[in-house]
Amino acid sequence: MRVALFIPCFIDQLFPNVGIAVVNVLRRLNLEVDYPAAQTCCGQPAFNTGYWDEARQLARRYREVFAGAEAIVCPSGSCTAMIRNFYPQLGVTPPAIYELAEFLVKILRVTDVGAKFPARVTYHDACHALRELRLKDEPRQLLRKVRGLELVEMNEAETCCGFGGTFSVKFPMISFAMDEVKVKSIQQTGAQYVVSGDSSCLMQIDGYLRRYKVPVRTISLAEVLASIE
User: Fold this and answer.
1) Are strands 147-151 and 97-99 parallel, antiparallel or unpaired?
2) Residues with Cβ < 8 Å from 109, sequence gap 6 or more?
3) For 214, how many CA atoms within 13 A lie in the half-sphere containing its CB?
4) Among the four given CATH numbers 3.40.50, 1.10.3470, 2.160.20, 3.30.460, the one describing domain 2-107
C-alpha cells in the first residue's frame, strides 16, 4: 500500500522529528510513503479565526496537492479533523485522510508496530482527536503493545490542555489555568512522560513543565511508536 504523508505546520516548523518518526513507523510496516513537497497549511488557523475565503483557497490547494492519493496519514487529530469534518463547510470535498493511530488500528488493523520504550507514561487526549474524530482507545491500544512501556491513566486525560490554537493567545490567563489543571493531573500519575497524538498540545504542556521545572517530559505518540531501543 502506498500512503501520502501530510505534515502539519507545527510539526514542519518546530517538531520535525515527529514527521520522521511517522515515516519510520510506516516503512517498518512495509508501506510506501509519498511526501508531496508542494503541501502547505490545511487552512485551520484561518478557518478558526473567521477568514473563510482564505481557508477555502488553502483547502482547494490541498485537494490539488493530494489528488490521487489512496490514503493520507497525518500525525495530528487537529488537522485531520479540519480536513475531514470542516472542509465540507467550505464547499470542498475532503480526501481520504486518517490520523496516525486511527490509520494503524482501524485501517491496517495493527496494534503492535515493534516498538520498545521502557518508561512510565500517561496519555493526553487532544480535543479534536477525541471529540471530532472519536478516537479514544486507538492510541492506547498501540501504547499497550509497546515493549517496556507502562501506561498510567490520569484523571484529567480528556480535559483540554488550554492551547486551542489562537485561544491561548486571545485568552492567556484562562489557557494558563487549564494547563495548570492538566499538569497537576499528569504529576499525580508519577509518569516520566506525557504522550499525545498532537504536537501542539504537547508544546502547550511542555511550556508549563519547563517554566515550573516539573520533572516530566513530553513525547509524541509517533516518536514512541518509532522507538526500538
Assistant:
1) unpaired
2) none
3) 24
4) 3.40.50
Q: How far, in Å, CA of 173 to CA of 168, rounded?
A: 8
Cβ proximity of 135 and 103 under 8 Å = no
Q: In this structure, what C-alpha cell is assigned to residue 215?
A: 520533572
On whether the CB atoms of residues 36 and 16 are closer than 8 A, the answer is no
d(CA 24, CA 133): 24
- Coil, strand or helix at 32: strand
Residue type, 85: N
Query: Do 2-107 and 116-226 share a fold?
Result: yes
Give me the helices (H) in the chain, please. Answer: 9-13, 16-28, 44-48, 52-65, 77-81, 100-102, 127, 137-144, 167-170, 172-188, 199-211, 221-226
User: What letter would DSSP give residue 178?
Assistant: H
Alpha carbons 32 and 83: distance in angstroms, whole number:
23
- Across the range 99-112, mean pLDDT stands at 97
What is the fold, at CATH topology level, of the domain defined by 116-226? Rossmann fold (3.40.50)
- Domain extent listing, the chain: 2-107, 116-226
Regarding pTM above 0.90, the answer is: yes
- 41-85 residue pLDDT tens: 999 999 988 999 999 999 999 999 999 899 999 999 999 999 999
Q: Would you say residue 169 has pLDDT above 80?
A: no
Strands, sheet with 2-5, edge to edge from the N-terminal-most edge strand: 32-34, 2-5, 72-74, 97-99
> Quick check: 192 and 217 in contact, CB under 8 A?
yes
